[in-house]
Amino acid sequence: MHEFSIVSALIEQCEQLALEHQAKGIARVAVKIGALSGVEPQLVKTAFDTFREDGMCKGAELEMDVAPLELDCKACGAHSIPDEIAYLCPVCQSRDIKVSGGEEMLLMQLELIYD
Ligand SMILES: [Zn+2]
């Protein structure tokens, strides 16, 4: 499953950061999931619960935020967050747009546990 490899990489990233900061454990992991990332929050939660079992993320709380699709229009310069997923500028209807947000899953915050 797509989510499992993403979460596995996320946990690795968290553990790496915890090690770098000489932390004892991880209390909280906050991620942002792009509306277009194709990642299902419920599956992320399930995968997180599965993978954290014996690592530093054991006992960590997972917080998820969905990041909306963001577009930059190359025709009129508008930056917009459309209500629905459409590759179209809502201001001038141009299709000459660049997606500037909402496509990835990002680690936003990590709360570490020290002695
Ligand atoms: Zn436009």
TrEMBL record:
The keyword Zinc applies. Pfam families: HypA. Ni(2+) binds at residue 2. Gene3D superfamilies: 3.30.2320.80. This is Hydrogenase maturation factor HypA. PANTHER family: HYDROGENASE MATURATION FACTOR HYPA. Keywords: Metal-binding, Nickel, Zinc. HAMAP family: HypA_HybF. NCBIfam families: hypA, PRK00564.1. GO terms for molecular function: nickel cation binding; zinc ion binding. It comes from Shewanella fodinae. Belongs to the HypA/HybF family. GO terms for biological process: protein maturation. Zn(2+) binds at residues 73, 76, 89, 92. Involved in the maturation of [NiFe] hydrogenases. Required for nickel insertion into the metal center of the hydrogenase.
